[in-house]
What does this fold into?
Amino acid sequence: MIRRLMARHRLAVRYWSGWVSSGPRGRQIGPRPILALHRTPDPNCPDCDGRGEVMSGSPGQDEPDWDDCHCAPFLPLAYLWLPKPPAWLRRRRPAHDPWCTNPACTHDEPPF
It folds into this structure.
């Protein structure tokens, strides 16, 4: 039922892993993961044909610019900040041992 309701109003929930926003005083917040409620493009839009982007730019440019269409703005209607993963989940990979000559060194041999 929720899926039909959201499809009728052209809404979609998207996950953004590194969203950067600005607070009320202009200070940047992020990058943080968020769940955002976005408006999807209108399939009957005469400007973008349901893609949500409109090609723009000057005739002398090598590649055109893309702007958001009025039927689907990029900014979310509402969003929910998700917690950052704990530090123990953000481990670094162990660096390569400089004493090993083999790049795929597994250290399964005894040291003597």
